[in-house]
Amino acid sequence: MEWFLIFVSVAVVWLASLCKILHSSFYPNQSPFLNNNAGSIQKKNVLLVIAHPDDESMFFSPTINQLTSRGHNVHILCMSTDGIGDVRKEELYRASAILKLPLQQVTALDHPDFQDGFGKVWNSNKLAKIVEKKIFAHAIDMVYQSLFHNLQVATPHHQSIWKIITFDNYGVSGHCNHRDVHQGVRRFILDTSKRYIEAWELVSSNIVRKYSGPIDIWLSFWSVKGEMHCLVNEHPLRSYAAMSQHLSQWVWFRKLFVSFSSYTYVNTLRKINNGQVL
């Protein structure tokens, strides 16, 4: 009887949390993460830097759905294709289409120095150069094109011209490639002389929260402090559908992960300041 009551209690909280998420999809609020420093809303271009195809669906879909549903342009830079380039690229493109991302805004690399696997260290300096090239190729969040050639004309009202999103130093699962991507973005932030760049990292949670599903939205909102923002996934079924496009990875434990992982339902982003967490 005691275990039954616990099960019922958890089920009720789970359903209440899911209802909260679905309610958000009908009455979406504008997250402060999407505002500029003056508090006004502008359409933004955002670069999401990931390690592997399927990272976008497994970990970052709440952020992607929040941004795309409000008309912001999300670019994906995927550093590796896991050694089966054409297959994984096609899967990434199909998943991106489900997530409402134009294919021309999705780049998947098959670089010999960035191959998937534990024990394969990715060079942070090379990765930083690739991020830099991508930033300037697409002018990420370039609100005023004149700033691309003459950044010193910017005023405080037009601060935070570029946004980059990636993993934090643990990389959700502790995967070395996730952590290397974080280090590469951090290196780029340290090396760049441009003040008009924002970098944000996806906060890793402990294993209990990681598999608490939609229940984690309450803990996420409660834990937000300082330069942090909590983004709820307004389209969790879209995230599941996107992950299902990665057929080479769509095995039973990943199906369970997408169903029960808190990263399907909420993302907590934390700002990186000059390569250091605030």
TrEMBL record:
Pfam families for the chain: PIG-L (PF02585)
Swiss-Prot/TrEMBL keywords: Signal
Cellular component GO terms, alphabetical: endoplasmic reticulum
GO molecular function: N-acetylglucosaminylphosphatidylinositol deacetylase activity
EC number from the UniProt entry: 3.5.1.89
Keyword Signal recorded: yes
Top-rank taxon, per record: Eukaryota
InterPro entries attached to this UniProt entry: GlcNAc_PI_deacetylase-related, LmbE-like_dom_sf
Signal peptide: 1-24
Enzyme class at the top of the EC tree: hydrolase
Family in the record: Belongs to the PIGL family.
UniProt-recorded name of the protein: N-acetylglucosaminylphosphatidylinositol deacetylase
